Each structure stands twice: as structure tokens, then as C-alpha cells.
Amino acid sequence: MRKKAKLGLAVLSALALLTTPATASAAESSSAADNPPAGVGNSHAGAAHTGVYPNVFVKAGISRRAVEARVNATWQQLFHGDPGSDATHRGDGQTIYYQLTPDMAYVEDIGNQDVRSEGMGYAMMIAVQLGHKQEFDSLWNFAKTKMQLQSGKEKYFFAWHTDTTGKILSTGVAPDGDQWIAAALAFAEGRWGNGDGIYDYGTEARQIVHAMWHQSDNGGVDMFDRKYYLPLFTPPATFLYYTDPSYALPAFYKVFGAIDKDDKDLWDKAYDAGEKLLQTAHDPRTGLTPDYANFDGTPYLGRGETPTDNSYTHNFQEDAWRAIANVNVDAAWFGTKPWQKEYSNTLENFFEGQGVTTYVSRYHLDGTPLSSGQNTYEPAHAQGLVAMNSTSAITATDSVRREFVRDFWNTEIPSGYARYYDGMLYMLGLLYDSGKFRIWASPAEH
């Protein structure tokens, strides 16, 4: 039985109608909540004001019908495709979604054979964006029942990984996973309304979001640092006092400020700090961002590391790929700023020089390819990075942006061992680029 949604469809319809006359007419001729008007290009206002989400596929000459088919095919393969030979050899399969019980499911990191909070958050967000409530509820049931910590200094945070039965392998926290789970729950409230118990999505979202600033009230460690207003790399390990640029999700902070009104000022500061980090952390020559950074945006160096070594921490590798989309989702939702255009143009100019269809996946920030560090099952021209690079077309102004979109379009849906991380970023990239990654809960102020 549903309860009344606190941030419901009527609010979303009102958002969609705060538009130009042409957009308003489109909204009136269909369901504005289920079918927000699609657009192309970028906007100084952003979709939160106009209801128009950029569709860079259409801008690159790809038909809406073809885009719809690709989105559906990717969902079907990654969530309901071939499971692989057996539980110990799933590397020959397609799906990453596995039903543990009739009402509980998880997404597996195939290479590591575990379940990670980031993947659960991604999968929940994908499910709510595409309207797949059964899969959403099954994923949330696993995350809530198996992964969320219910006591102690990390109460309401999520263990960053479990095995595939739900046994917690580490109580450490990865803040990106918690943020994605909370945002997905907020959008589930906006799209479907609230149910009973753990399916009261809004209450669950607010509980998680509020805890991000208030664990210190109970002797714990907050997820966000109150001096810099940025997420810590892995609370409660305070000796790891740095951040990860890909954990900065400013677009979500507008939503969090709307559902956690007591901390709205903190979320506003987090929004500004997150944008600033993404603006300053990348190398101005290449647009490449380090995996981990100090709070001022400079690359983080671990003990004994040097700027020229191949360590994961301070080079452009898997974590850093996601920072590209974080910049562009913020622009799509809340308006494109000059620095975001400059960033995307710089990034595209660098990768164009590397070969749009042939660049490798890991670099020093100055653009020198790493001499080692490739996973044995990770393609050199990784599908996840191809997807994230294509999102730069949302804000880029140079004509080469269409080449990055077409490179993504011509990339196969990930399968095999690499299908967890590359597959998640591939699916999210489709949503970002097609205008299907939408605000299903209304930020009170923009």
C-alpha cells in the first residue's frame, strides 16, 4: 500500500512546466512526470528549471528510436542476461544482477566476486530512472538488510563490500555508494511514492543523508568533512584524511538539501565545494583528474609514492573516469558554467590527440600513458571510460564532441569479466547522454 509521496509527481510536473512555451506545450501533450520533454545541447539554466535534458545522441545524428532500443538492450543484458556458467565462473556471462531470494537481489563485481555499495547504488539508480520497481526493491532489500550498519559509530552507513550471500567483509565505508543509494531512494519516493517499512523510501533516504553530517554527534566520524565540506575517502578511517574527486556529486547535493532541510546550509556548501574540487583537481593541460586528491584538489600521494610513479592514488585511472560525468550531470541539471565548457573542451582535445577510438585507459595527469597497471581482463580502450568521455559532449563546444559520442555508440555492451564496472558506467553513460538521467525529486531551490 502506497503512502502519499512527499516529493511526488505533481512537483515534477511543475518543474517541467517552468520552461519555454515550446517545452511547456510538449509537457502538456504527454505525461510530464513519466516522459519529461527531451532536448539537445546544453543550457545555462539546466533541466531543473527547464525540464529539458540534453540528448547528445540525437545531436550526433542518432535516432531516438535507436537510442531507446540500445538503452533497453543494455538493461536486458546487464540485468537479465546470461548469468555465466556457475557461481565460481561467471566471467563468461552477461548479467551482473542476481536474485538471491524472491525479494532480494545484488549486483556482483564479477572480477572480485563480491558485492559493493557503489554497484548497488548505481543499479538502484538505473532501476529507478528506467522505472523497474521490482528490481529496485530487490536491490534495496539486500542493501538495507545485508549492507547497512545498524549500530555503532557507522550507523546508517553501508559496508563497502560483502560476499554474494550478504556476509559483511569489511565495515569500512565508501561514500560514493552511500550517496548513490540515498539519491536513488529520494528519486524512488518522487517516482513511485512511499510504501511501508523499508519501502518508505523518503524516510530511508533522509535517514542516510542526515547521518552523513551527524555521526560525530555520537562519537563517530562524519562522511563529509566540516572544514572543507567534501566527502572523506573512507570514514571512519580518519588517518586517511583526503578525498576522491569522483565522490564529489554536486548534482545530488541539491536534492539532499531539499530532503534534509535541517542541513540545507551544509548541503549548499557541499555543492559549492564539490564543484570547486572538480574544477581544480584536473590538470589544466589535459583535463585528467587524479583518483584521490587532497581537499585543495592537488593529487594525493601515499606514503613512499612519487609524482612520477604508477600508483593508483594520484594518476588518472578507474575512479577518476567518473569525475567527467559528475561535472556534466551537474551542468545538465543545474546549468552549464564557463569552466565546465573549458574543462570538457580541454579533455576532448587531449583524447583527440591520443586517437578518439584508440586512446588507452590510464594516464599520468600530464597525459603520459601509464606503463603498467592494466587489469588482465580490462580492455585497453575501456568501455567505461569511453562512456564517461562521451558525457563531455553535454558541455563541450568544439565540433569533435560528436566523435566521442559516436565512439561510445559504436562500443559493444560490456560482457565477460569487465562487465561490472565497465557495464555500470556504460549503462549510466547511456542515461546521461540520452536525457534519461532525470530529477525525480524536486530541489526546493536551484
TrEMBL record:
InterPro entries: 6-hairpin_glycosidase_sf, 6hp_glycosidase-like_sf, Glyco_hydro_8
Domain of life of the native organism: Bacteria
Pfam families: Glyco_hydro_8 (PF01270)
Residues making up the signal peptide according to the UniProt record: 1-26
Keywords (A to Z) from UniProt: Glycosidase, Hydrolase, Signal
Matching SUPFAM superfamilies: Six-hairpin glycosidases (SSF48208)
Family from the record: Belongs to the glycosyl hydrolase 8 (cellulase D) family.
Name listed for the protein in its UniProt record: Uncharacterized protein
Protein's organism: Actinoallomurus spadix
